[in-house]
Design a protein that fits this description.
The complex is a heterodimer of chains A (about 375) and B (about 375). Chain A has helices at about 1-15, 80-85, 100-105, 110-120, 135-140, 150-160, 170-175, 215-225, 295-320, 325-335, 335-340, 345, and strands at about 30-40, 45-55, 60-70, 90, 95-100, 125-130, 185-195, 195-205, 210-215, 235-240, 245-265, 270-285, 350-365. Chain A has about 375 residues and is of the alpha/beta class. In chain A, strands 1, 2, 3, 4, 5, 6, 7, 8 and 9 form a 9-stranded mixed sheet that branches. Chain A is globular, with a radius of gyration of 26 Å. Chain B is mainly alpha-helical and about 375 residues long. The longest helix of chain B is centred in the last third of the chain and has 41 residues, at about 325-365. Classes of the chains: A alpha/beta (about 375), B mainly alpha (about 375).
Chain lengths: ~375, ~375
């Protein structure tokens, strides 16, 4: 009886799952950054940065950074083509960043990202950015040979913490692409010099297509506050009076946003008012240094300036047909009958958006 | 009749019911309920919980009349030997069928998400072998294991709490009640299927110590826990994913964790699924136990019955798990479950009342 048991245990241990599903690190080539572009002939071109790990023996590894290209009529075959170029199997699960060239993005991004939604190995927590010019130009930039994908990832995450980039990953992008009446903002990257890349601001998306319009980092800081998305810090600098050379750098500590929507059910006019109450600290105000700050006067000045800028931002958003506040979503849930009659793609431009910003200075730093 | 060897306490019954109810059904539940109930899917689940509560009350009314009998004995007493045997065979098929469907679904999801290269039969062999190993020992051992396994459910709840930090949009479920009563009911119908397992009470009742009073409280706690856990997770999915997106995702609960990322850990869905193997297996263990009890009755052939049923489950798990076949299987299970879980106990309760009246009438 005991021997029979032993035999059973041996048989069972042979069936342990690890024997089938084992993956060796050294057999894999990890893709850590992907760029999609539309070529002039209308083909899809993919540029990937991969890390090839080679065992040197003794537990030591050599890491190689390789740049690969593939071009096909449709994006569907690109993975196989990349796979045929590398040693071992290609692993997309560690791709941290997906860059999409502006021309490609104008034709729609949902189809490009489908692979990452469906795939079992795909990491949907990764970041997506739109690039000025080709994605290839950004991703092939050499920054001291360190994997560029990590540099881009860190830059984007830094931007998210400083509240000038929206916190979007593939999973949240997918949600927003499939939400009616709410649009997406994506980071906008550009290559400044052949060795340098930077975040230029945010790209405004109209549905899953890039509208071609962008906001600068200064504008997107205010826009994210208007969307009530303050992360760790948020800094802005304002020119209050050009003639007197009066400028200020402020950081927002607290945001209270109220988004009210009124719908005229007869003619279907939609009015949205965004009331923003900011509690700010002053980081730098190199003006009238011989006096203490007159907080009331100054906060009124800042409020006026920010309200003016907010109006400019909403105008650009309406030109781009990009609704990041989810005004359409609110209308669709609170006024379903009116929503049925509206054609949001066209009617968003006619929405009256009234932004109003009020600031209260709560900190002035070490000096009054 | 019932020896002290195979009795369980009320607390153990609570855990057994929870473990049997919670299982693979949860993973796709948000998708299934929102198909008809849209943003009101969470109401559907609450309503399904209410329906289950009513069923549990009916079960207890029936079982209190026969405190020492399992369902299979009650059918024989009330329906007569021949009809009783036919009904008991149907019950047996229901348990085997449900058990094998759960196994097939579990192998499918493990093969798709965790172990793509491992042959399906190896996975099913490992699962069923461990199920049989636990089930051949008596009910008390099973109950103790289930109590222990509940610890993992608490871990899973902790992991679930992490997904609260994903971006949420409350507008997705507004306005509440917009789906309409009919669609919410249809959603409840689907939710009930994912919450099956409470029918184990029909077989466990005679084994519980002190089953004369306080039973309603115990089973209600089990139902309350399962319903609130399911409602909570479905609610999370409904506010995280947009309706069109939820419509496309097969296992929204796993996607909930896929979007989470931390410096140290990534792909929480794989961790969640690895732990979720335990609640999935406990459901299979319970169905294996129920099928074997059905087959063996009060006779001593219980151990053999477990082994035979284990082999049957293993053979049935070779049914290819393509999307089409699993869909048909779940549909058959739902038809059978309505007969066994809802119709049969109600009928038996009605009959038991009639029989009692006739008897008392006869005495007069």
């Amino acid at each position: 009886m005991k021997k029979w048991h032993l035999l059973l245990y041996i048989l069972m241990s042979l069936m342990l799952a690890g024997c089938w599903d084992q993956h060796h690190l050294v057999n894999k080539t990890f893709v850590n950054g992907i760029g999609y572009d539309l070529t002039e002939e209308g083909n899809v071109k993919v540029t990937v940065r991969t890390v090839n790990i080679k065992g040197k023996g003794g537990g030591q590894f050599d890491v190689e950074d390789i740049l690969l290209f593939a071009e096909q009529e449709m994006q569907i075959g690109l993975g196989t083509e990349i796979d045929s170029m590398v040693a071992g199997e290609v692993d997309f699960s560690q791709a941290h960043i997906i860059l999409i060239g502006d021309e490609m993005a104008k034709t729609g991004i949902n189809q490009l990202l489908e692979f990452y939604y469906r795939g079992k190995d795909a990491n949907i927590a990764k970041k997506v950015a739109i690039t000025k010019g080709t994605a290839e130009s950004v991703i092939s930039t050499e920054i001291e040979k360190s994997p560029i994908a990590f540099f881009i990832l860190q830059a984007i995450e830094g931007g998210e913490n400083a509240s000038y980039l929206p916190d979007e990953s593939i999973s949240s992008i997918w949600t927003k692409l499939l939400t009616q009446g709410r649009d997406l903002l994506l980071p906008y990257m550009e290559q400044v010099t052949p060795e340098k890349i930077r975040i230029a601001g945010v790209a405004l998306m109209d549905g899953d297509k890039f509208s071609g319009k962008t906001l600068t980092i200064e504008q997107s800081s205010l826009l994210l506050l208007m969307m009530d998305e303050l992360k760790k810090t948020s800094q802005m600098y304002l020119v209050l009076d050009e003639a007197k050379d009066e400028s200020i750098r402020i950081s927002t500590k607290q945001v209270k946003r109220k988004l009210d929507i009124e719908v005229d059910e007869k003619n279907g006019n939609v009015m949205a008012s965004i009331n923003l109450k900011l509690k700010i600290g002053i980081d730098s105000y190199p003006h009238n240094l011989n006096k203490n700050i007159n907080q009331n006067e100054l906060s009124q000045k800042i409020s006026r300036e920010l309200t003016k800028q907010a109006k400019e931002i909403t105008n650009i958003l309406q030109e781009a047909n990009c609704d990041p506040f989810g005004i359409g979503l609110r209308v669709s849930t609170t006024y379903p009958e009116t929503w049925e009659k509206l054609n949001w793609d066209k009617d968003f431009k006619n929405v009256t958006i009234k932004p109003n910003v009020e600031v209260e200075i709560i900190k002035t730093g070490s000096i009054y | 009749m019932m020896g002290s060897q195979i009795s369980i306490t009320k607390f153990q019954l609570l855990m057994v019911l929870i473990q049997t109810q919670i299982g693979i059904g949860l993973l796709s539940l948000p998708n299934v309920v929102q198909e008809s109930a849209r943003g009101d899917g969470w109401i559907s689940i609450l309503f399904a919980g209410v329906v289950i509560q009513f069923l549990l009350i009916i079960y207890l009314k029936l079982l209190k009349k026969f405190p020492n009998d399992m369902l299979t004995d009650i059918t024989k007493k009330l329906l007569g030997k021949h009809l009783g045997t036919i009904v008991n065979t149907t019950i047996y098929f229901y348990f085997i069928f449900t058990g094998s469907t759960l196994t097939i679904l579990m192998i499918k999801i493990l093969n798709e998400q965790l172990l793509p290269l491992t042959p399906g039969w190896v996975v099913s062999f490992l699962i069923i072998a461990s199920c049989v190993y636990l089930t051949v020992s008596n009910l008390r051992v099973i109950a103790r294991f289930f109590v222990l396994a509940t610890f993992w459910i608490l871990v899973l709840i902790c992991i679930t709490v992490l997904s609260i930090w994903l971006p949420k949009e409350i507008q997705f479920i507004l306005p509440v009640g917009s789906a309409g009563g009919k669609n919410i009911l249809l959603g409840s119908n689907n939710a009930l299927l994912a919450m099956l397992g409470f029918e184990a009470l029909l077989f466990l009742f005679p084994f519980v110590i002190g089953n004369t009073k306080g039973m309603l409280k115990t089973v209600s706690y089990a139902n309350l826990f399962v319903t609130s856990f399911y409602t909570f997770i479905t609610f999370l999915c409904l506010v995280t994913f947009s309706p069109e997106q939820l419509h496309q995702i097969r296992e929204p609960v796993l996607f909930l964790f896929r979007g989470l990322t931390y410096r140290m850990v990534d792909r929480l869905d794989l961790i969640f699924l690895s732990i979720w193997i335990i609640p999935m297996t406990t459901s299979i263990i319970m169905y294996l136990f129920l099928a074997s009890k059905c087959l063996a009755g009060k006779k001593k052939s219980y151990k053999n019955a477990v082994i035979i049923n284990g082999i049957i489950l293993f053979c049935l798990s070779f049914i290819p798990n393509t999307d089409k076949i699993t869909d048909t299987l779940t549909q058959y299970v739902s038809f059978l479950s309505y007969t066994i879980v809802i119709f049969l106990p109600c009928l038996l309760l009605l009959l038991s009342r009639l029989v009692k009246k006739r008897r008392s009438g006869g005495f007069v």
